[in-house]
Write a structure and sequence with these properties.
Blueprint (H helix, E strand, L loop, with lengths): L6 H14 L9 E5 L14 E3 H6 L3 E2 L10 E5 L9 E3 L1 H9 L3 H14 L16 H13 L13 H13 L10 H6 L1
Antiparallel strand pairs: 1-3, 1-5, 2-4, 4-5
């Protein structure tokens, strides 16, 4: 095996490793969906799985095509909050995330895979503006001061910061979609 000079060797080695982590052939890993306006937003995020049937009963619909088996577990990803793009992430998404633990990288790779398979360009929606680097660091500092484990104060919207944002949104009666906004920062 020559990982440095052979693209086939590199691809097959990565594929074997991902298979070893539990990849389930023939199952999806990410699917764009449309959401009802009355969705319980606190159920979004990688820390909350429901079955496809449960999401469907809440009004979650595929943007194109159909949904997979109603018994398949899925998490609702809202990378830019309730007004941005929305995806159901399936078990294979978590396998890939175990391989590369960057949420943005894994979501991008999974999205591009759906495009290669023929999915249309995602619906960007109309998400609220994200925070600047300085504002994100300020938010992380305020969240840490409230007792949340947000990890390093680095201005990066990681899993700990998203979870803390969701908790504070719930406490403040805001839609708990995990997307930090200037309005949330002002309320803290």
């Amino acid at each position: 095996v020559d990982l440095k000079n052979s693209a086939p060797d590199t691809i097959m080695t990565a594929a074997r490793f991902i298979n070893h982590l539990g990849w389930r052939p023939g199952e999806p890993w990410l699917q764009e969906v449309s959401l009802p306006s009355n969705l319980p937003w606190e159920k979004s995020g990688l820390n909350f799985d429901m079955t496809v049937g449960d999401w469907s009963s809440l009004g979650v619909r595929p943007r194109t095509g159909g949904l997979p088996s109603a018994s398949l577990p899925a998490a609702l990803l809202l990378p830019q909050g309730k007004d941005g793009p929305a995806f159901l992430a399936y078990p294979n998404f978590r396998v890939y995330l175990e391989w590369n633990q960057s949420f943005i990288y894994t979501t991008s790779a999974a999205y591009f895979a759906t495009r290669l398979a023929g999915a249309p360009r995602y619906n960007a929606g109309n998400p609220g503006d994200g925070l600047s680097d300085a504002a994100m660091k300020d938010l992380q500092t305020r969240l840490r001061n409230r007792g949340y484990d947000v990890g390093k104060i680095d201005g990066i919207l990681g899993a700990g910061t998203r979870a803390a944002v969701r908790s504070e949104q719930l406490r403040l009666g805001l839609p708990a979609d995990g997307w930090p906004t200037q309005a949330l920062l002002n309320r803290l």
